[in-house]
From TrEMBL:
Organism: Vermiconidia calcicola
Reaction catalyzed: N-formyl-L-kynurenine + H2O = L-kynurenine + formate + H(+)
Record comment regarding domains: The main chain amide nitrogen atoms of the second glycine and its adjacent residue in the HGGXW motif define the oxyanion hole, and stabilize the oxyanion that forms during the nucleophilic attack by the catalytic serine during substrate cleavage.
Annotated protein name in UniProt: Kynurenine formamidase
Motif (HGGXW): 37-41
Length: 300
């Protein structure tokens, strides 16, 4: 795989954005996909690099250039955001012997602060601007993508994406914990959320896109395109997460839309084969999502 260019935006090892941009292209000649990896805010095995690797060779192939319907007829550029992680019990660190710049001790809002800082770097270094990119987030990366859009509306500190794709996104944090409280992995769900957000459920609600969007301004999604994706064998994030976010975005009368146009936004959904992490581990499945998103944006 072609090596990315790395841009650091802080002292921590994980405060980094990786960029794959065709040689000789200028800022106004490319359309961006900006990826946000998942991993329950804490999994050090999922990185900004290995998250995009399976899809990368396909997205930059000659075939994809003709089949992707890249918006505005531009070339494709890709960025993948890295962010500080919360502690993981399976990968403990000794704070006395681990350098501070390598410690995984992040707490909300550290994760979203890093995501927004990475997007801001793309604006400064590459001219990333409003509507010149799509945000694609998997699992908690889907949470972070919606949080980043909210940050744009509230502060204007980062460019606005033209569209957002959430793959098995977590949109209601308390609901996720509640739905698994009697299952065999109840403690895993609870510990991952408490490790990232603490014990205060008010913080969980404020960080949950479904909750914060329901009680926020319609500007949060006005004029945007959203594609919410599930995996048909996902045993980690239930489809009710998408259903709840769908109702928030497109209204409760929406039923399994291919594309639902509302007065506020354009909403679509799809399902891919396989399990939770196969959505990105099998590159062709991620590419199908990108292809669908670009087709919607191009009106195909």
């Amino acid at each position: 795989m072609v090596q990315p260019k790395s841009h650091k935006f802080g002292d921590h090892d994980l405060q980094e954005v990786l960029v794959w941009m065709p040689q000789g292209q200028s800022a106004d000649s490319v359309f961006w996909i900006v990826f946000i990896h998942g991993g329950a805010w804490r999994d050090p095995k999922i990185t900004a690099c290995n998250f995009v690797e399976p899809a990368m060779s396909i997205l930059f192939s000659d075939t994809a250039a003709h089949e992707l319907s890249i918006p505005d007829g531009k070339s494709l550029a890709i960025a993948s955001l890295s962010y500080r992680l919360s502690p993981h019990p399976s990968y403990p660190q000794n704070p006395e012997t681990t350098p501070h710049h390598s410690l995984r001790i992040a707490k909300h809002p550290d994760h979203i602060e890093d995501v927004c800082s990475g997007i801001a770097v793309l604006g400064r270094e590459y001219g990333l601007s409003d509507d010149s990119y799509v945000l694609v987030g998997h699992s908690c990366g889907g949470t972070l993508a919606f949080q980043a859009l909210k940050r744009h509306v509230e502060t204007g500190g980062i460019p606005a994406p033209r569209a957002l794709a959430g793959l098995a996104g977590i949109y209601d944090i308390e609901s996720l914990v509640e739905n698994h409280k009697d299952g065999p992995y109840a403690e895993v769900y609870a510990s991952s959320i408490k490790g990232a957000f603490g014990d205060d459920k008010k913080v969980w609600a404020h960080a949950s896109p479904r909750r914060s969007y329901e009680h926020g301004s319609r500007e949060l999604f006005s004029g945007r395109t959203f594609l919410l994706v599930t995996a048909n064998e996902d045993d980690l994030v239930e489809p009710e997460q998408r259903d709840g976010m769908k109702y928030t975005l497109a209204g409760r009368h929406t039923k399994n839309p291919q594309i639902e146009e509302t007065q506020d936004c354009r909403y679509a959904e799809m399902s891919v084969e396989g399990g939770h992490d196969e959505m990105w581990q099998q590159g062709e499945r991620m590419v199908k999502v990108i292809q669908r998103l670009f087709m919607i944006l191009s009106g195909i």
